[in-house]
Amino acid sequence: MIFRSRGQDGRPRPEIALELRDLGEWERLMSESPHLRDRTYIESAAGAVVGTGAVEPLTNTAIEPGALQLSDNLREGLEYRLINSRMRAVLLSLQWALAEKNWSDAKIYAAEAVTPFALRLRGIFAKFIGSEYTDSDEQKRELYPIPCEDLQQLSFPSDIFDVVTTNEVLEHVPSIDAALTEICRVLRPGGWHVGTAPFAMGQYESVRKAQLADGQVSFLMEPEYHGNPVDEKGALVFEVPGWDILDRARRAGFRDAFVRYIVSSKHACFSSDAGGIFVFCFQK
């Protein structure tokens, strides 16, 4: 679905939600719609939303005009009640994934527990569980009763969750393939993985930055660390997924795998470098 319009002020009001299944589809979209990579166009669209307000997906909370603020990084900006543009795209994808599910019965697992995103889900779903990761006994004790889980070896039973969401997490897992296999295992048939990670959108191959072997980390590129809510030292980036993540998800057991590309004026979902947000959607 692609919808382009302009408001009375002449600013663009794009509304886009596309399921992309390979690099070729992304390249065709960019060839047909080059304005989506035009920073001026996207900033104008985001600026219009700042002036008119938006709606938070899943909760249907009204975001009042002027409550959002523009920033140089739209993907991680446009924050409202600690939920940013990227997170709203994930909330919207969760809303789609659960369209036919009674939310009071929906079982949701998030690979995060102390973040604003996890707290938002905890306030919506009675059967929500979030976890953090640490290998430090001291940190585990400090986090208790929050569970600590390794995505490569989850403690949950098989075929139990309706949705598993991982947001800016997969890039920090030593083996994305092991994590995808475990996520698929704990999802019920028909269940969804929904989430984001930094994305090498212009190439098929993922970018391997570090690897773990025999308990030792070796660096293949300059070490890169991202913020970690439970460790001030940050979290090491092992791999940045490319379009091969979709084939790897299918090999892990998912029957369908695509990237949902979202540009939304209604929900204030934009990205400075790609126009919209890439959300990984894998169905068991």
Question: In words, what does this structure look like?
Answer:
With 284 residues, this protein is α+β, with helices and mostly antiparallel strands. It has one domain: Rossmann fold (3-Layer(aba) Sandwich), CATH 3.40.50. The chain is built from 7 helices and 16 strands. It has helices at 23-32, 39-52, 85-97, 116-122, 137-143, 176-186, 244-251, and strands at residues 2-3, 15-20, 54-56, 61-63, 107-110, 127-130, 161-167, 187-196, 207-208, 210-213, 216-219, 225-226, 235-236, 239-240, 256-264, 277-283. The strands form 5 sheets. An 8-stranded mixed sheet has the order 1-2-15-16-8-7-5-6, sandwiched between helices. A two-stranded antiparallel sheet has the order 3-4. β12 (225-226) and β13 form a beta hairpin. The radius of gyration is 19 Å and the shape is globular. The relative contact order is 0.18. The model has no long low-confidence stretch (mean pLDDT 95).
CATH superfamily: Vaccinia Virus protein VP39
Overall tally of structural domains: 1
Record field, number of beta strands? 16
Q: Strand pairing plus helix content: what structural class?
A: alpha+beta
Shape: globular
Into which percentage range does the β-strand content fall?
Answer: 25-35%
> Major β-sheet, in short?
8 strands, mixed
Strand line-up across the major sheet = 1-2-15-16-8-7-5-6
